[in-house]
Design brief:
Layout lengths: L5 E4 L4 E4 L6 H5 L4 E3 L18 E7 L5 E5 L3 E5 L6 H9 L9 H6 L16 H5 L3 E7 L4 H16 L2 H5 L1 E7 L4 H11 L4 E2 L2 H11 L10 E5 L5 E6 L1 H10 L1
Parallel strand pairs: 7-8, 8-9
Antiparallel strand pairs: 1-2, 3-4, 4-5, 5-6, 7-10, 10-11
Helix pairs in contact: 5-9
């Protein structure tokens, strides 16, 4: 079954349930790494990336493309036909003893800190692997709107029943990568949600490519276990509306 497209417009943001070129079963088997099967010239006119070059598959995009990250090159949007992704999906689905681990866990396991520890201790890998619902909040810890956004997301997370909370992660990533700023937020909020440490935040903010320079900040993104963007709220008003609608 393919996913449909649904748009919800808020005052300053849009929540998007994006289309997928993959079936649900295929999307669950998307590889973390894949390779080019032909030479590729980046749209910015950079050097040609030769066939057989390996890349990290960040996520499928809603225009049928794949967001890939190449070492020392950066991000490129590829068509499925330029890669061995479909072959990797089939190989994964036909392999015995496959690890039933969501792709987002490969990105976040051992890299996010628990709210209960005031963002000092990592969430156990076995808890990340069980996750079904993924929320990522991006913002600058020095901006007052970010504190309010954290409070809103934290309130939503606390409102979940115990069963739902055990399969949900809500992670704050500081776009300023400020250790002191993250600690100040933790001291103020006494959070239940998770956070990524400052030394990892900058890299993951760049790798995930969930917001652009034109987006109003902060930004809240909901993703599937495969990494596909399900919804995005840009700006505090949109985040408040999104959380209230959950």
């Amino acid at each position: 079954m393919k996913y449909s497209i649904v748009l919800y417009c808020f005052f300053l943001g849009i929540q998007v349930l994006s289309a997928s070129i993959f079936s649900e079963a295929e999307e669950a088997s998307l590889p973390f790494y894949a390779k080019l099967i032909e030479d590729y010239t980046p749209e910015n006119g950079g050097r040609v990336i030769p066939a057989d070059t390996r890349f990290v598959l960040i996520r499928p995009l809603d225009d049928g493309k794949l967001l890939a990250e190449f070492p020392r090159v950066g991000h490129c949007e590829l068509s499925l036909e330029q890669t061995n992704v479909q072959a990797e999906i089939e190989r994964e689905r036909n392999t015995d003893n496959v690890l039933n681990m969501p792709r987002m866990a490969y990105f976040l396991a051992n890299r996010i800190m628990t709210g209960e520890s005031a963002w000092q201790n990592p969430l156990r890998q076995e808890d990340v692997v069980k996750t079904q619902n993924w929320f990522l909040l991006y913002g600058d810890s020095s901006e007052p709107e970010l504190l309010e956004a954290v409070l809103r997301l934290d309130g939503y997370y606390r409102s979940l029943d115990e069963t739902s909370r055990k399969v949900t992660v809500a992670v704050y990533l500081d776009t300023a990568a400020s250790k002191a700023g993250i600690q100040a937020i933790a001291d103020s909020v006494k959070p239940s949600i998770q956070a990524m440490p400052a030394y990892l935040s900058a890299g993951y903010c760049k790798s995930f490519q969930h917001y652009s320079a034109s987006d109003e900040m902060p930004v809240l993104v909901e993703v599937s276990s495969s990494g596909r963007v399900l919804s995005k709220a840009a700006g505090l008003d949109a985040i408040q509306a999104f959380v209230a609608d959950k």
